[in-house]
Every structure is written in C-alpha cells, then in structure tokens.
Amino acid sequence: FAIATEALELFSDLLMMPCYRWNRCILVPKDHPLAQLDSLTLEDVALYSIVTYVFGFTGRSRLDDAFRDKGLKPKVVFTATDADVIKTYVRLGLGIGIVAHMAYNPETDSDLVAIEAGHLFESSVTSIGFRKGTYLRGYMYDFIEAFAPHLTRNVVDEAMALPNKEAQEKYFAGIKLPVC
C-alpha cells in the first residue's frame, strides 16, 4: 500500500482513494508571543523561524501556497518528516512548529500550545492506494476499511472497476471525508 498526502501524480500506476481530510496547527512554547494572540494571522506566523515538514511530504505545498498567495516568504529553518522531531525542535527554541493538528497530544505535549491554523491553510487529503490489478486479500480490505471506514470492500471493488483516473476522481468526488 501507499499512503500519501502529496505528489499523488507520482503514483500514476496506483489506484489512490481519499481517506480523510486534515489541517495544521502552530506549535509554540507556552510563553511564546503567538500563544498570547486572540487571532492568529499568516503575517504573525511569517515573523518567526518555522520548523515544519519536508516539501512534498505531508501537505507542505499547501503551507507554501498560503504564504505565496499572501506575498509572504516563510522563514523555514528546519524540516523533518516526523512531527515528533518538529516538536523537539520547537522545545529547543529553534522555531515555531507547523504540523498536522492530529500530531498534537495535549497530554504528552502539555509544554506546548497548539494554535488552530485551519483558517490559514487549505486542508489536505490523505489517500491510500495500491497497484492497479492487485488481487486484494481479505486482510487487505480489512486494513483499508480500518484506516478509512468509508472505503468498504464494495467501494474499493467499484473503484477498481473504473476505467481511468478521471472516472475514479469523479466517483470519489461525492464522498464526504472524515476530518482528523
């Protein structure tokens, strides 16, 4: 299986099915000036060094697009593929973190403040895929449905029967995705 948020065009030989929609939060230490603001703007974020995901990984292009659309240049000083690494960099004072909101755990990350950023960035969609023509065993259907409950065996089979990527995109266009 492939599970991806970006660069889906690189998976032209795979049937990619949308799983869930997600957005980001800004992580800062409790005493950070951004934690004191009533309303966060992209201009506020652009004032600080940023630690976030590697471009092309986990929705990073949506972040870059948001800054570019406002005529801002983000000061990305470190990138990582793992949210825990980003949180460590924030704790070390290397910058503010921009991560998937689901990566913040109020219990284990109680030393950080998560500032909602859904109004700053377009949401991303994570998809799961497999090579076209793959014979899916029962446990594979079970995994897909456990990962994305709306992708039942019948939905997956119907998607596999569609003739091309355009038909697949049209098929999934009407499905309401869960938000994480």
Task: Explain the overall architecture.
The protein is of the alpha/beta class and 180 residues long. It folds into two domains: 2-20 and 125-173, D-Maltodextrin-Binding Protein, domain 2 (3-Layer(aba) Sandwich); 24-116, D-Maltodextrin-Binding Protein, domain 2 (3-Layer(aba) Sandwich). It has six helices and eight strands; from the N terminus they run βββαβαβαβββααα. The strands form two sheets. Strands 5-4-6-3-7 form a five-stranded mixed β-sheet, with helices on one face. A three-stranded antiparallel β-sheet has the order 1-8-2. The longest helix has 10 residues, at 60-69. It is elongated and about 55 Å long. The mean pLDDT is 92.
The gist of it:
The chain has 180 residues and is an alpha/beta fold.
Number of helices: 6
Which segments are poorly predicted (pLDDT under 50) over 5 or more consecutive residues?
A: none
Question: What is the CA–CA distance across the termini?
Answer: 21 Å
Architecture (CATH level 2) name of the largest domain: 3-Layer(aba) Sandwich
Count the beta strands: 8
Task: Summarize the biggest pleated sheet.
Answer: 5 strands, mixed
Percent of residues in β-strands = 25-35%
Order of helices and strands: EEEHEHEHEEEHHH
Shape summary = elongated
The CATH homologous superfamily name of the largest domain equals: Periplasmic binding protein-like II
